[in-house]
């Protein structure tokens, strides 16, 4: 007897006609034709069943604040930082929680059940940290929320940032953050990397730094991050986010850098939507688009996950909370168009990002948490192409969200009466 039985699922690895049995919030069976009763039965009808989407890089304290105190007219990263600096003194616990909770509602509807959010700790009031810790507790029944202590104004450049970051970690923020390229000098940037990795090693924490979010090919703090990771024995616990300067670096230097990153077992989080929007602003044509070297990093065996980064905030006036939008942009920007490429991109918004966050019990194997999403698509490549409806969103075996399939009804002489976008999946894709 199962609590929940999902029949006729297609899994991301290509297996089809699979049943998934759930008992006590965990997956108890994954096999064809399970002959058992269940309290609830869902027919997946051959559609893709995936583990939930995972966003390893977000700014929940800023989300849904677009237009406050005014719009980012230039559309640049630096104006976004300046706008946030104007808004920050006016932030209240209540407003921060309300916006974050609204975003989490949207996230659940998109099958996004794990998020790592950077929390600005530059304001010594730490109202952002207090609010996000409140949100983390509120959403714990349905979203795994990790928090990064992020000194937005720089660990050394920002006044009182060192003490504020320490206080945020003492309050229960999970991860040590940084922004070395925003320090006053390259030397201060390297010094901040060393100091922050030391703090993480002493406290037994992970590290996730905004690193080299710049078009400057000489912004090379990821090299320091890799070296300090090895020095402090943090392999597998350190993430470099953005890394957009790698887009502009010469190939010889990158041929040295990527092996160093692999030696340190760095995790990598590009943010394709925001990177494509903010980088290359000083170029005319040819115009750089700033996305880091995703195919080469994957080929070197590094764990690459994709983040949404921003939704409707001072830096980005777009965003839907849908990680498949992120994968869709990455596919176009990287020209990763083969079947194998698309499966790798799907992994970047699911299993890779779960690995970066260190999520326990993630996946569709027996013994994993019964967290899953049924999509109106036939396979991962089609999911990226269509960005389809999340027909069912399930956590610990309980239904959190559902939507009717997208079906258009036609009135065309001699043509079918209905169109289902998922029916257009190619029969012989490679």
TrEMBL record:
InterPro entries: Amidohydro_3 (IPR013108), Metal-dep_hydrolase_composite (IPR011059), Metal_Hydrolase (IPR032466), Metallo-hydrolase_Enzymes (IPR052349). The keyword Glycoprotein does not apply. The keyword Metal-binding applies. Its EC number is 3.5.4.1. Residues 40-395 form the Amidohydrolase domain. It holds the Pfam family Amidohydro_3. Coiled coil: none annotated. It is an enzyme of class 3 (hydrolase). GO terms for molecular function: cytosine deaminase activity; isoguanine deaminase activity; metal ion binding. Keywords: Hydrolase, Metal-binding. GO terms for biological process: cytosine catabolic process. PANTHER family: CYTOSINE DEAMINASE. This is Cytosine deaminase. The lineage of its organism: Bacteria, Pseudomonadati, Pseudomonadota, Alphaproteobacteria, Rhodobacterales.
